[in-house]
From TrEMBL:
Pfam families: CoaE
EC number annotated for this UniProt entry: 2.7.1.24
Protein name: Dephospho-CoA kinase
Described purpose of this protein according to its UniProt entry: Catalyzes the phosphorylation of the 3'-hydroxyl group of dephosphocoenzyme A to form coenzyme A.
Subcellular location: Cytoplasm
Top-level EC class: transferase
Gene this chain is encoded by: coaE
GO MF terms, alphabetically ordered: ATP binding; dephospho-CoA kinase activity
Keywords: ATP-binding, Coenzyme A biosynthesis, Cytoplasm, Kinase, Nucleotide-binding, Transferase
Residues binding ATP: G12, S13, G14, K15, T16, T17
Gene Ontology biological-process annotations: coenzyme A biosynthetic process
HAMAP family noted in UniProt: Dephospho_CoA_kinase
Amino acid sequence: KKYLVGLTGGIGSGKTTVANGFLTHGITLVDADIVAREVVEPGSPGLEQIRTHFGNSVINGDGTLNRGLLREIVFANPQHREWLNNLLHPMIRTRMLELVEKANSPYVILIAPLLFENGLDRLVNRTLVVDISPEKQIARTMARDKVSETQVNNIIASQMSREDRLAKADDIIDNNGDVAGIEDKVAELHSLYMTLSQSQ
Ligand code: ATP
């Protein structure tokens, strides 16, 4: 079994930025958001099951999933939400673990914004949290996504609190400084994970 590190953090905390640091050390990244899109891509068995359950209206003319409509349907109906989660979560897990085992690097980084919220921490050997102050988190997300402070605050409120996330972390990267400032910490964690992966 491949040694697996779960990388998480709130919106705009710097997960992608930190993950790219591990990439420069030759480590394979598996991104939960990308896998979640892949399992419902046009023509996929996942999308066909959604079509059968919810009807053709949840499929756009070009064959892609109408995410907005599906979100409205499951938001209004907990039973529909549960059905969808029961369909997608096992498919996403299976595919992620497939990609992990296929990887050629000594360990793998699993990037998952909702690592703890979705119980994906149970799949990993170790968790790494990217930490950032709420002020910087709001400023960086507003600048990147061109959204309002209120919109960012709503997303932050829907995620696990900073405090709870930090309490669950095995390792923490402080991303309040500049990007160059995380390089040393990434290198230090990389050598730790190399050791842990060899001695497991
Ligand atoms: P999300 O979960 O929303 O996709 P994320 O956690 O992957 O976000 P990033 O996309 O890595 O976060 O970072 C958010 C924004 O902040 C990006 O525009 C990124 O370039 C910028 N950023 C990340 N780290 C730093 C830093 N240390 N200093 C300045 N800007 C940064």
